[in-house]
Amino acid sequence: MQPQIEHVSDTALMVAACRAAESKRTDALIHDPFAERLAGERGMALASSSPTMPVMQFGIGMRVRFMDELLGSAIAKGVDTVLNLGAGLDARPWRLDLPRELRWIEVDFPEMIEYKRARLTDAVPRCRIEQASADLNRAAEREMVLDRAREGGGRTLLITEGLLMYLPATTLEALASDARAKEFRYWLLDVSSPELMRRAHGDLAEDINRVRAESHLAGRDILAVAAHEGWTVADSRRYVQYAPPLAYARISELTGPGGIDPKAPPPADDVSGVWLYQS
User: Fold this and answer.
1) Whole-prediction pTM
2) 118 burial class (0-12, 13-18, 19+ CB within 10 angstroms)?
């Protein structure tokens, strides 16, 4: 029997597996030497069981690459603290060339944090790493981690990679409002349109939908929440605009059965991509 996504944490295993597979390509978009050990057998099985794995792997590789680019840009502008909510199995503090004095706080479920610690026991982080557990749907716990990141002031960046599409709308709205009220300088996020989700995940999209909040928002609506709460766009990497020049051969390779439908390209105004907001 093929493994199925049973909890939102399973998506973190699958994403790590996609990073691992992408890193092995000669034309890899990213290089993550920790991804395979973080994914484990279950993560690799979840990813490989999907017939759209090549498309999903490409999409994750593109998302991570653009996230890395915009993160580097924000750090160059003076960011000294990063708060990564729903950090999952992200390996940036270990794989990126980061300032040693950068403070990086990871937040996730206790079980995910313990799993990650066990997998990275011999790995040395490139910056000052802290970890905390919190349920973002609970206002008190959400406020606790936001306040922790703002201790000492400075320029703080919030990361929500692969997270917002799982949250209830009320939690997303509160997070956007609270982070701006607490004077976070930047917010690095990604969004996907329903069309892109169907193209990237195929039948697996149904499994993903089962672990999303019933009131979750799609890409354009997530960006609307950010704008409504006073965030403005500092930079962006929309996939429809930035992916073809970077990896035209890969996109051509992925067209056809089980891949991207060449007769149904995403519309030019598709907002799917990585967005850097400033307050």
Assistant:
1) 0.91
2) exposed
